[in-house]
Amino acid sequence: MNVLPDLLSLLDGLGAFETIVPFFVVFLVVFGAINHIGFFQNKRGIEVVLASIAGLFFIRNQFLVGIMLRFFTNISYFIFLLLILLFGFGLIARKKAKKGIFLFVGFIVSISYIFFALSDKTTSFLGGGSLRILSQLPSNIVQGILFIVLFGAIIFWAMKGKSKNKTDKR
Fold first, then answer.
1. Among residues 21, 63, 66, 105, which one has the fewest Cβ atoms lying within 10 Å of its Cβ?
2. Which of 10, 15, 7 lies closest to 69 in space, CA to CA?
3. What is the tens place of the pLDDT at every residue in 6-56?
């Protein structure tokens, strides 16, 4: 008797993965954002009500729920690997300058894997597929993404150069 697969199939039959999981994900993200901003100060009741409303509105749109479930299925393994990688970088990089480089590389790898996870499943490497999603996007979006990545790299390079000049002037 396999208890865990039977339990998961029971929860799937009840619709837990199409309603409960997306509701709690949206609820936790919205509640955390409202709580972090501190807009309502210590009024947790208002924060809970707003987060609940956002979660209920989200699960009403089955298209968004489908996108979220597909995205989480494809990217959950990558999140695990990314956490291990970031933990390793944290142990290696003790200086602030090195942490910035690792953060930038991690950001670029994360963005590229998001495209990989949202693409068609023609290969099974890390749960993703081919990058056919780029051919489905309008050309101005692809150009915009490339511009943002290039502009971010230039800003990072410029800021890195400024910090070295400030330390040399002592």
1. 63
2. 15
3. 887 887 888 888 888 888 889 989 988 888 888 888 788 888 889 999 999
- Greater confidence, 76 or 166? 76
State the CB neighbour count (10 A cutoff) for residue 161.
9
> Measured between alpha carbons, how far is 104 from 146 in angstroms, rounded to an integer?
15
How far apart are the C-alpha atoms of 45 and 51, rounded to whole Å?
10
CA pair distance 145, 69, nearest whole angstrom: 24
Please give the torsion angle defined by the CA atoms of residues 110, 115, 120 and 123, in that order, rounded to the nearest 10 degrees: -40
SS (HEC) of 20-84: HHHHHHHHHHHHHHHHHHCCCCCCHHHHHHHHHHHHHHHHHCHHHHHHHHHHHHHHHHHHHHHHH
In this structure, the number of other CB atoms found within 10 A of the CB of residue 48 comes to: 15
Least Cα distance to 117 among 65, 68, 58 occurs for 68
Torsion angle in degrees (nearest 10) through CA of 94, 95, 98, 104: 90
Q: Which of 66, 82, 79 is nearest to 21 (CA)?
A: 66
